[in-house]
Specification:
This protein is mainly alpha-helical. Helix content is 71%, strand content 2%. The protein contains nine helices and two strands. A two-stranded antiparallel ribbon has the order 1-2. Helix 2 (16-39) packs antiparallel against helix 3 (44-64) and helix 5 (106-124) crosses helix 6. The longest helix has 24 residues, at 16-39.
């Protein structure tokens, strides 16, 4: 088993860096599982995403660097938000949700960009304050942005925005490019290729989602509309005279 891991990820479990890469790989595997489950609108996908955060950022932070919790905890809250937001859709069967499609708005795009920038900043944690982030290599920036894009895309998916799947695919593909150019580990390349494929599969599966229906007006809204119409009719009749 250790020889297989070494050939796939070019690491040794006897070193701390090797264990960190293995945790990162397990986290990426849970992201693939989450994407496949959510493609079928399955609630268990959010639990898989929670496991992805626990097995990667959270455990790694608790074992090696507690400052990394500044990044891990928001990712955990993001996954919990997805679980809560999905629960607002009607349940069909045991775990499947009747997701309705939500349109991508300018406000959503601005919020998404702000969220990605915040996640990248939190990934640098204390290095953001002492200026060390300025010396980070382009590869580190690319990996941090790609990671932020992958997790931020699940916010759109949680809201029923179909284009969130394309964002997830873009984040995974950018990771594939970075790993291919910097450290061609066959295992990590494969995991992110599968993430991109799972994202495209989710985008295809969500092609026929129904549009969100408008909420039924309340009795108060009906009464106000009737009163406004009556007042308008009365005003028009007075002008006719």
């Amino acid at each position: 088993m250790e020889s297989i891991i070494d050939s796939l990820f070019q690491l040794s479990l006897s070193t701390s860096s090797g264990v960190q890469i293995l945790l990162f790989a397990i986290s990426a595997l849970f992201v693939v599982i989450a994407a496949l489950l959510l493609a079928h609108r399955n609630d268990l996908g959010w639990w898989a995403l929670i496991m992805a955060v626990f097995s990667g950022p959270i455990i790694s932070a608790m074992k090696y660097d507690l400052y990394a919790l500044f990044y891990g905890v928001p990712l955990l809250l993001l996954a919990i938000f997805g679980l809560w937001r999905f629960s607002r859709f009607e349940l069909k069967g045991k775990f499947i949700r009747m997701v309705t499609r939500t349109q991508l708005t300018v406000t959503s795009v601005v919020g998404l960009l702000a969220g990605i920038i915040l996640l990248v900043a939190l990934h640098f944690n204390v290095f953001l304050f002492n200026g060390s982030y300025l010396s980070a290599t382009p590869e580190v920036w690319a990996m941090y942005v790609s990671d932020a894009v992958i997790f931020a895309s699940f916010v759109l998916i949680a809201r029923g925005v179909r284009s969130g799947w394309l964002l997830l695919a873009a984040g995974a593909i950018s990771y594939v490019v970075v790993y291919f150019l910097v450290s061609p580990m066959l295992g990590m390349l494969g995991l992110y290729v599968f993430t991109a494929l799972a994202a495209l599969y989710g985008w295809y599966q969500w092609r026929a989602l129904p549009e969100a229906s408008q909420p039924e007006p309340t009795q108060e809204e009906i009464a106000l509309e009737a009163a406004a119409k009556a007042a308008l009719d009365k005003l028009n009749s007075a002008e006719d005279k």
